[in-house]
Design brief:
Family: Belongs to the glutaminase PdxT/SNO family.
Strand content: 25-35%
Function: Catalyzes the hydrolysis of glutamine to glutamate and ammonia as part of the biosynthesis of pyridoxal 5'-phosphate. The resulting ammonia molecule is channeled to the active site of PdxS.
Number of domains: 1
Shape: globular
Order of helices and strands: EHEEHHEHEEEEEEEH
Distance between the termini: 10 Å
CATH topology: Rossmann fold
EC number: 4.3.3.6, 3.5.1.2
CATH architecture: 3-Layer(aba) Sandwich
Keywords: Glutamine amidotransferase, Hydrolase, Lyase, Pyridoxal phosphate
Structural class: alpha/beta
Number of strands: 11
Number of helices: 5
CATH superfamily: Class I glutamine amidotransferase (GATase) domain
Catalytic activity: L-glutamine + H2O = L-glutamate + NH4(+); aldehydo-D-ribose 5-phosphate + D-glyceraldehyde 3-phosphate + L-glutamine = pyridoxal 5'-phosphate + L-glutamate + phosphate + 3 H2O + H(+)
Length: 190
């Protein structure tokens, strides 16, 4: 089966995701409009700036189509800013978009500013070796609901989790040549 995976192309690390997916032999496409969701098997909401991406989702009228995609139980992967957007986070008083796809509260820029960006190797549940991970102004997950499976932590801070058809990571798997996490996501696509 040739999987078609879309990358939400409003702002952020879109090109890097498209390249990584194509390197894995996936039919990867840019998603900018509601029509672009037709025929997708999975969707990546990339890293970038969560406030800007959320605003653009609303301006482009994509919030309902994203929620429908989620309700159809299609695979969704939120990386960094995408993690924030997928959250149910009510811990901060904000008008910023939260899609509520995974029950968790998030600390935006939890590891600090750009200068505090770092690389490490993670123990990642479901992957039988350490995974190379790049964190850039990364959030972390403060708490999760009972249906959420924690997949990885850094310094006791949750940095990867999944609930049903949704996978989220605080790191950027598209910025390394270690495609283990992207492969893990692709395996969620039925």
């Amino acid at each position: 089966m040739n999987k078609v995976v879309g990358v939400l192309d409003l702002q952020g690390a879109v090109a890097e995701h498209l390249i990584a997916l194509r390197n894995l032999g996936v039919n990867a496409v840019s998603v900018k409009t509601a029509e672009d969701f037709v025929g997708l098997d999975g969707l990546i909401i990339p890293g970038g700036e969560s406030t800007a991406i959320g605003r653009l989702i609303r301006e482009q009228g994509l919030e309902d189509v994203l929620r429908t995609f989620y309700q159809e139980e299609k695979a969704i992967f939120g990386t960094c800013a995408g993690l924030i957007l997928c959250s149910t986070d009510k811990s901060h008083v904000t008008e910023d978009l939260r899609l509520g796809f995974i029950e968790m509260e998030v600390e935006r820029n939890g590891f600090g500013r750009q200068i505090a960006s770092f690389e490490t190797y993670l123990d990642f549940s479901g992957i039988d070796r350490k995974v190379e991970a790049v964190f850039i102004r990364a959030p972390y997950i403060e708490s999760v609901g009972p249906k959420v499976k924690v997949l990885a932590t850094v310094d006791q801070k949750i940095v990867a989790a999944e609930q049903g058809n949704v996978l989220v990571t605080a790191h950027h798997p598209e910025l390394t040549e270690d495609y283990a996490v992207l492969t893990y996501f692709l395996e969620k696509i039925v």
